[in-house]
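Consider the subject:
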Amino acid sequence: MRMATGIGVAVALLYALYSLAASDFNGRADVDAYINQISQQQGFNREELAKLFKEAERKQNILDAIARPAEKTKPWSEYRDVFLTDSRIAEGVEFWRENAATLAKAEQEYSVPPEIVVAIIGVETRYGRNVGTYRVLDALATLAFDYPPRSDFFRAELTEFLLLAREEGMDPRSLMGSYAGAMGYGQFIPSSFRNYAVDFDGDGKRNIWTNPKDAIGSVANYFRKHGWTADGHIVEPASITTTQADAVSNESLNLLYTVGQLRALGVTVNGVPDAAEAGLYRMDGSTGLEYWVGLHNFYVITRYNHSSMYALAVHQLGQAIAGRASEVAVAEPVAETVAQ
C-alpha cells in the first residue's frame, strides 16, 4: 500500500509539473493581447487560440541558446571542413540518386541545377537527417514573448506559422523544427514556407517535413523567386595586385561593383564579362588568403543565409557532389516517379 501510495503521489507530482509547464503562456497579458489581435485581424477563433497557447511550453534551453554569445567566427578553412566532408558528399550523391527525377523536374521548371538544391539540403539538415527536435509552436511562442531583442520578428513568424497550419490543415502542435522555428529538409521559417513552399508531387499538400519531393521543389522555387539565373556564373577564384583591391573585399553581400571595376582596382579573374555585377570576398584559407569574385547567383545563395562563407560552402559542396555523381552516373533514370 505504501508503494502504491508513493507511486500515486509521484504521478500526481509529475502531472502537476506537466500542467505547470504546459500553461506557461496561459493568462499572460501580453499573450492575451496577441490572441485578441490576431483573432480580429486573421479571423481565428479566440477560444481555440487561448486553448492552444495554454498547451504551448516555454523552453528555457531555447532562450539560453539564442542569447548565448556567438562563438568566435570560424575561418573559412575550418568552416569549409564542416561541410566538405567525404560522408556529406557521399550522402549527397545518394540523395541525388534517390531523387533524380524530382531534381531534374525542378531544374526544368525553376532553372536551378540539382547540385545546388542538394547542397542546400545537405548543409541545412544533412539531407533530412537533422530537421529539428522542438515543437515549432513552443519555439516561436518562447521567442515571441520571452526574447525581447527580436520579439517583433518572432511574433510575426508565429502569426505566419498559425496561418500556414490553418491553410495546410495541420495541427500546429504536431509540427517540429529547430529552436528558432525553422522547418523541414530546407529549414524554412514560416514566412518562407507560405511564400515559397510548393506541392511538387501534386498530392494537394506542401509537406517539407517528410516529403523530399516537396522539399526539393520548394528550395528550387525559393531560388527562382530570389532571381536565380540559368547558366549564370556563381563565384570564381581571383587574385589581387593592389591594396586598393583588398580594401574593397568583404564590403557587403550586395554586389557593389562590376567585374570591370574590380579589374581596374587590381583584381584578376578569368572567364567573367566586365559588365557582370560582382563583389570581392576574402577568405582565410588553409594555406593563406583566398580571394573570390561572387556574381549574381552567389548573391542569390546569400538570400538563403546571409553569409559569404555559407554561399561558398554551398557552391563547393554542390560541385563536389556533382563531380562524384558523374562518376556513378547518378543522373541516369532511376525507379522514381514524379507527378506531372
Notes: Residues 35 and 41 are 10 Å apart (CA to CA).
